[in-house]
Write a structure and sequence with these properties.
342 residues, mainly beta, five-stranded antiparallel beta sheet, 19 strands, 8% helix, globular
Length: 342
C-alpha cells in the first residue's frame, strides 16, 4: 500500500480539468489498461515471458504513440535495435554483478547466468477516479537461479491536466537477506524508448523495420519524419545532453503533425540527484542517478549499496505534453510542483 505521505499527495494534488481515468485489469492478458475518458493511454504489461514489467504503449491526447513499437509491435520505418528497450521501465546494469538492463530474448545461449530478471509478483491495489488513477505492484529482482536479491514496491499514479498526461513512478527497492551492490554502470535506470519521430536526425545509415514488420536487409540513411530535440534544465540542447546532470529533461518533436513534448523529472530526494542523463539521439531516453563514473567521464563515481533489509526510494515523473513544445518556464513550474508533491 502507499505510504501515508504518498496517500496525501495522491488525494490532494490539483491538476485542472479532470478526465475519467479507469484502470482495467485483464488477468488473462497479463496487463492493466489505463484509459483516459475511455481512450487507451498506456498499459502495465507483466507477461511472464518479459524480462521486466513495462508500461507500453504510451499515447498522447490524440492517440499518437510516443513509445517505439519494436520489439513488441514493430512498425515500418522504426529502428530494429536494442530489443531490451521496451516502453517505459526501471532496472539497472550491475546488481551484484548481474546485468538486469540488457536482458532480453536476444541474450546468446549459454550467457543467461550473467543476467537478472525483474519478475512481477503481485498487483496490490488498483484505483480509478476523476482526474487520477493508481496502480500498486510488487516485483522481485531475481538472479539466474531464481533467488530474489531485491524486493520492489512500485506505485504508478496517472493524472490528467489540460493537455498533459502525467505518470508518477515511485519505486522502493529493498535488499533482502544479503547486501546488494549497484555498482557504477552506464546502463540504467528509468528508461523510455521513444518513437522514431522523436529521435534526432542522423547522417549515418541505420537498420529499420520494413513493410513486412521485419528488419530490412540493409541499412539506410532515412530521416523522414524524424524531428526530436532534447533540452535540459541546465540549458544543454540536442545530443550533447548525454552524460550531463539536470533535474529535468525534455524531448520535443512532431508525430503525425501533432507537436509533442516528453519530459522526465528527477526528484531532489532521489539518490544521486540531480541525475545523470543516459539520453541518446537514437531514441533511448533514460535517467541514471547511479552511473556517475560512466557518465561523467571518470570525474565522479557512485557505487551504491543497500545493506540487508535496507531500502531506498526513487521518485520520477513523466509528462506528455500534447499540442505544444513545452517551454522552460512551464517545465520549471511543473518540476517545482512535482518536488512539492512528494
Amino acid at each position: 500500500m502507499l505510504a501515508p505521505t504518498l496517500l496525501v499527495a495522491f488525494s490532494g494534488a490539483k491538476f485542472g480539468k479532470d478526465s475519467s481515468i479507469k484502470l482495467i485489469h485483464k488477468q488473462e492478458q497479463h496487463k492493466v489498461e489505463v484509459r483516459f475518458d475511455g481512450q487507451l493511454f498506456t498499459s502495465y504489461l507483466y507477461s511472464p515471458e518479459f524480462k521486466k514489467p513495462v508500461l507500453y504503449p504510451i499515447k498522447t491526447q490524440h492517440s499518437n504513440q510516443v513509445t517505439r513499437g519494436y520489439p513488441l509491435e514493430p512498425r515500418p520505418g522504426e529502428r530494429a535495435d536494442h530489443p531490451h528497450h521496451v516502453g517505459l521501465w526501471l532496472n539497472y546494469g550491475d546488481v551484484n554483478g548481474l546485468d538486469f538492463w540488457n536482458n532480453s530474448d536476444a541474450v546468446p545461449p549459454g550467457e543467461e547466468d550473467e543476467y537478472g530478471t525483474v519478475v512481477h509478483r503481485s498487483i496490490d491495489n488498483i484505483e480509478s477516479g476523476s482526474g487520477k488513477g493508481l496502480l500498486e505492484v510488487t516485483h522481485d529482482w531475481v538472479g539466474p537461479g531464481g533467488k530474489p536479491l531485491l524486493e520492489e514496491q512500485a506505485t504508478f499514479i496517472f493524472r490528467s491536466s489540460g493537455n498533459k498526461r502525467i505518470i508518477d513512478r515511485i519505486t522502493t527497492l529493498q535488499a533482502l537477506d544479503e547486501k546488494v551492490s549497484l555498482r557504477d554502470n552506464k546502463e540504467g535506470m528509468l528508461g523510455l524508448r521513444v518513437a522514431r519521430e522523436l529521435e534526432h536526425p542522423f547522417d549515418e545509415p541505420v537498420l529499420l523495420i520494413d513493410e513486412s514488420g521485419r528488419p530490412a536487409d540493409r541499412e539506410v540513411v532515412d530521416n523522414e519524419g524524424v524531428s526530436g530535440t532534447y533540452l535540459s534544465s541546465s540549458g544543454i540542447e540536442g545530443t550533447e545532453v548525454w552524460g550531463t546532470r539536470a533535474h529535468w529533461m525534455n524531448l520535443s518533436g512532431q508525430i503525425e503533425g501533432e507537436q509533442v513534448s516528453v519530459a522526465i523529472l528527477d526528484h531532489p530526494e532521489n539518490v544521486g540527484f540531480p541525475t545523470y542523463w543516459h539520453a541518446r539521439g537514437y531514441g533511448l531516453f533514460a535517467a541514471n542517478p547511479l552511473g556517475q563514473k560512466a557518465l561523467s567521464g571518470g570525474q565522479k563515481e557512485l557505487n551504491f549499496e543497500l545493506a540487508a533489509g535496507r531500502s531506498t526510494t526513487f521518485r520520477h515523473r513523466v509528462i506528455i505534453y500534447s499540442g505544444q513544445a513545452a517551454s522552460d518556464s512551464e517545465l520549471d513550474q511543473d518540476w517545482e510542483q512535482f518536488r512539492d508533491t512528494f
